[in-house]
Amino acid sequence: MTLTETRPEAEAVAAGDDSRPATQSSAPQWTPPTGLARFLSTGDHMTIGQMYVVFSLVLAGLALTLGMLMGIEQADIDGGFGVFSNANEVFQVFGLYRSTLILCGLVPLFLGLATALIPRQLDASSVAFPRAAAAAFWTWLVGAIAHIVATFSYGGLGSVQAGAAREQSVELTVLSLGLIGVGLLVGSGVVFTTLVTQRPAGMDLLQMPAFSWSMLVATGVWLFSLPVLLANLVISWVDMRGADALGFGGGAAPFEQVAWAFDAPQVFAWTIPLLGITAEVFTAAHRSSPKMFEPMAFIVGAFGFFSFGAWAQSFFDSADPAATDAHIVTNEVLFTAFALAIALMVVAYGGWLAFNAYSAGQRPQITPQFALVTISGALLTAAVVAGVLRVAEPALGVLREADGDIWRGFFDAMDDLETSTLVNGIMNFAVLGGLLAAVAGLFHWAPRLLGRPLNAPLGFLAVLPLAGGAILIGATDVLSGFFDQPNRPFDTSSIGDIDALGFVEALNVIGLIGYVAVLGGLALVALNVARSLATAPTAEAESEGAT
Question: Which residues contact 534 (CB under 8 A, 6 or more apart)?
Answer without folding.
Answer: none
